[in-house]
Specification:
With 261 residues, the protein is an alpha/beta fold. It has one domain: Rossmann fold (3-Layer(aba) Sandwich). It is built from eight helices and ten strands. Helix 7 links the parallel strand 9 and strand 10. Helix 1 crosses helix 2 and helix 2 packs parallel to helix 3. 44% of the residues are buried.
Length: 261
Amino acid sequence: MEVVIVPDAAAGGDIIAEAMAALLHRKPDALLGVATGSTPLPVYQALASRVRAGGVDVSRARVCQLDEYVGLPTGHPESYRSVVLREVVEPLGLSPEAFMGPDGAAEDVQAACDAYDAALAAAGGVDLQLLGIGTDGHIGFNEPCSSLASRTRIKTLTEQTRVDNARFFGGDIDAVPHHVITQGIGTILEARHLVLLATGEGKAEAVAATVEGPVAAVVPASALQLHPHATVIVDEAAATKLKLAPYFRATYAAKPAWQGL
């Protein structure tokens, strides 16, 4: 995988936004897989800035969700559908019809998972999937020891993940759902380009295990090593545990500018 070390989160967001813009130039109806949380916000802000400046045509672009809480009422502000609409779809000026996501309020949750996997395939697959990483190495909500061949399914959140996400629920861990729908690792690996963004010292151990450790279910993000086009972008703080950091810096510095991510 390609590893890019940037000075800060804003620089990472700008690089990824440029990659998305280039993709949309080549393929105007590209399907962008988006992640939630605070880490990817600089990406969406940088892309929206390009759209407002007239540098990117998103009139045919599509976006899809990586995961969703189970059991939150429709329209709940912290449902990931609401978050994506608020942070991605609306700032980019996309229509709601350009958005795809699983139904976390469905009576038959497994049927909703299967339907979402089928919908992604019918849409032609994800062209670029943006990922974050948990402090325990999870991607999406594929917690440690998830199958590397898993499909979209319901998962039970670990206590650590609920603690990490409590900040979005006013600090109240009891308000954080126990279950989620998530694209499985096997589903994620079907995207044509995977881009993982990690910032902050708290992600350093997980980043090192993902990039330099063995491929292992205990570190779900390590499955990116199996992908033919995976890019990991980290700020200096998240890169502190990488033994090969000097090599990664030199490699990216020597990369031809026209090559892109």
